[in-house]
């Protein structure tokens, strides 16, 4: 209660119906968003510096090898007397020995002030098993390995297909007369794009990675492989049928992200129920007394999403303002309670296991989980500020949006403190950079969403292209980057093969640069569009001014799509047995379990 009172007092100046555009540039939401964008740029520059340092180190090594070769050639051309003189000097150097007293003495060592806490002759440094190539092969049951690979393979397929639709839509903003076919119209193709990447790519990737986490952290076998396959078939069937109906013009009306009609979404809901039962029974049969923090997040995400889908498709309140309120709840909870919560559970396992160290704080993880449940469930209405919905409901959504700073800061701190001491891994592997970008966008995207909920910034940005940028900042910058990090961390350990680092690097940089170009262009254009609307200018003016920003949107989207094609090849490389595997230790190395506090 005290937290809510403090939030209301802090946010009260931002809750007024302020629509004056004279000083829009210095409004808190706008200033906060600019600061967050600068943070993303700084992190990108830091990663580039680390990678450049690694390249410079390799160049220096090559130069040393070249110098050594030149010296060898020089020795060949020397006379016998000159060679004898050089060898005599070398013999003297080899015979020289230190006395042992150069930096010390024979005096007894006394620590009168108690400054020394531990003395060791075998210092243990944190291992980063992903520095260059994975040398760890995890003993995974073949049925589980097959199940995981099929889930991830289907996810990769839907990623390429769903973003192909998104790429085509981005091109239509630049060339509106690209086609005149009804089934390729924007109104049909746009929900195909969003629902495919939501329920196809992201959901299947999360569940596939989750099957490994659930069994690994419970130290037991999966409860039922049959249920796992049933879930795979039901989800893929729902996406196939859902897209076929959408392309045919059969949909659930204007409900964003719930365009699939209810019989099709029922298949997805049954798959979630089956998956939850499979996960729950596996955790219940665990051979450990504790339940690892990842499992709390994953099971909570499944429970919350089953409730969400049920409420979103109930026939009650599906008209008028009731539908508006339900839509805000469903649309935002789908992102926060399903994708975000499940993905954070995966990060709590894959990040520390990739660094071979425990998560920094179990308590911060619990704090983030319960505060996310408290605040996230009430923020959906901030998508309908200034609508006919009750003013108190809008204000509640804004206040709870501000409250989201608590779980976001707790989670970000936990992840960054876990990485602390392992920064050198950035220069030698792309697994940590994928994680790092996901963590940064988790903070930036979530915080920017809270800033955007304030009434003035909402008035300027909402229903413009700025909102499209924000959704990609979260679903792509956070969720997709975390999924890629988990896949690149897991697959080499269960298949024995890792994709070439330069191809993983190409995937990373094309996705990151493409997202940044896409995001910044739509943020800038969306801001100008909102100001144009507020100034009362003709609507066509806002369409015309968006043309150059839509071009950059298409350019950024193209880079992102190319990165997905590279990722698909990398995935195929890692699972294809006919491709020669990388050198891997034959003996199986047991991966240290995350610390169960």
From TrEMBL:
The keyword Electron transport applies. The chain crosses the membrane at residues 28-50, 148-169, 198-215, 227-248, 260-280, 292-315, 335-352, 359-379, 391-410, 430-453, 473-491, 503-524, 550-572. Residues 344-597 form the Cytochrome oxidase subunit I profile domain. The keyword Transport applies. This is Cytochrome oxidase subunit I. It holds the Pfam family COX1. Keywords: Electron transport, Membrane, Respiratory chain, Signal, Transmembrane, Transmembrane helix, Transport. Residues 1-18 form the signal peptide. Gene3D superfamilies: Cytochrome c oxidase-like, subunit I domain.
